[in-house]
Amino acid sequence: MKQKAGHQPLARDAMAYVLAGGRGSRLKELTDTRAKPAVYFGGKARIIDFALSNALNSGIRRIGVATQYKAHSLIRHMQLGWNFFRPERNESFDILPASQRVSETQWYEGTADAVYQNIDIIESYAPEFMIILAGDHVYKMDYEPMLQQHVDSGADITIGCLEVPVEEARGFGVMHVDGNDTIVDFVEKPADPPGIPGNETMSLASMGIYVFNRKFLFDCLERDAADPTSSRDFGKDIVPYIVKNGKAVAHRFSSSCVRSSREDRAYWRDVGTLDAYWQANIDLTGIVPDLDIYDKSWPVWTYSEATPPAKFVHDDENRRGSAISSVVSGDCIISGSQLYKSLLFTGVRANSYSRLEGAVILPHVYISRYAQLKNVIIDHGVRIPEGLVVGEDSELDAKRFRRTESGVCLITQSMIDKLED
Question: Rg of the Cα trace of the chain?
Fold first, then answer.
């Protein structure tokens, strides 16, 4: 059995396979034109950049990304930002839309099928280990300790797990483990989640991260593909089968999460609802946020446009370009506008006498004069008309925009167009 001492890192013998085909329907109109992994996050990045950056920073140099739902935005982002892998250095980066190699009419039927249909491509690289990743979560993790645990434990599958309070575990797939973290049962969204031995107030929830030996994974996928009753899904089919018939081991996120000196606790977010997405972005405006995106030892790689610096202009009473407790990206011009606790992506224009508070503004938004926007998410390329007020009249906001129960409004260009009809 491989041991770390005296050998190259196990990550060099691994391939990361990112499942990035999901829509993310709970993000509503934000995913009308893009898959959830392609949604913007944090001022510069896309959500998928976190899983990809974790793989790269962990030392993995073979990566595949399976795409499906409205993939153009995602594919274009990866072509622009992740095109630096070099075959002559035994590196590879494959974008893998469903290409009907198994059947001329068959798209990916599930997460397991998204791997199964690309077995031939994976086999051509012959990695010893496969790390299956979800492409729609925000976190920093070194996959090397998980690989090492997989080898040391002799597991058939090692599953990344979050420790969450029992009352919060009902929305997850939950692992019932013994004292050695061997999984004895896997329960999907249980009404009464099992606790962790020695700490019954906490449960182990699946992160959708799986480590396999390649050959074992292929055997599982072949067996699953031959089962007409299977839904072709890792969480529903592959994992329960291995828990019952093989050796499944839980890997705790706390033992491989990456934290800078400024981060007090392990950070993992599913930003799959508008409220969660808004909150995670706004959190980054804090003095010491839970997620340190300024940590140079574990960078978040992404497509970096060549942009001019942000600019703040005008210094007259009530017309002063200013930003307090805010994150402002390159090519933004804050022209006599006031920002408070807001996050602006590239190329935003905020004009005189406008005020933004709790605003998450995606790239290339134009905000006209006198607009007053509070607790909003504004989609890419929207033009906000002069004098628009959002965040003061909840009933009016709900009629015009997508408003959550907590009062966050998503604004898209089609919604603005209807106002002007």
Answer: 23
341 annotated among ligand-binding-site residues: no
SS3 state at 235: helix
What is 247-288 written as a DSSP string? -EEEEEGGGTB---TT--S--EE---SHHHHHHHHHHTTSSS
> Residue 109 CB: number of other CB atoms within 10 A?
18
Location of each CATH 2.160.10.10 domain in the chain: 311-417
pLDDT in tens, 184-234: 999 988 999 999 999 999 999 999 999 999 999 999 999 999 999 999 999
Indicate the residue type of 99: S
Q: Quick check: 233 and 111 in contact, CB under 8 A?
A: yes
Which of 13, 106, 12 shows the shortest CA–CA distance to 59?
A: 12
103 a known binding residue? no
Give 191: exposed, middle or buried? Use CB within 10 Å, 0-12, 13-18, 19+: exposed
Measure the N-to-C terminal CA separation of the chain; round to a whole number of Å: 69
When pLDDT is averaged across residues 94-107 and rounded to a whole number, the result is: 70
Query: How high is the mean pLDDT of the chain?
Result: 95
Q: Kindly report, residue by residue over 358-381, the tens digit of the pLDDT.
A: 999 999 999 999 999 999 999 999
Q: At what angle do helices 48-58 and 72-81 cross, to 10 degrees?
A: 30
Confirm or deny that 70 is annotated as ligand binding.
Answer: no
- What's residue 22's pLDDT? 86
Residue 110 labeled ligand binder: no
235 labeled part of a ligand binding site: no
pLDDT at 102 over 80: no
User: Could you report the per-residue pLDDT of 289-300, keeping only the tens digit for each?
Assistant: 999 999 999 999
Confidence of residue 50 (pLDDT cuts 50, 70, 90): very high
The strand pair at 92-97 and 62-67 is best described as: parallel
Backbone angles phi, psi at 63, to 5 degrees: -135, 135
Indicate the class that CATH gives domain 311-417.
mainly beta
For domain 10-285, give the CATH number.
3.90.550.10
| Ranges in the chain annotated CATH 3.90.550.10 | 10-285
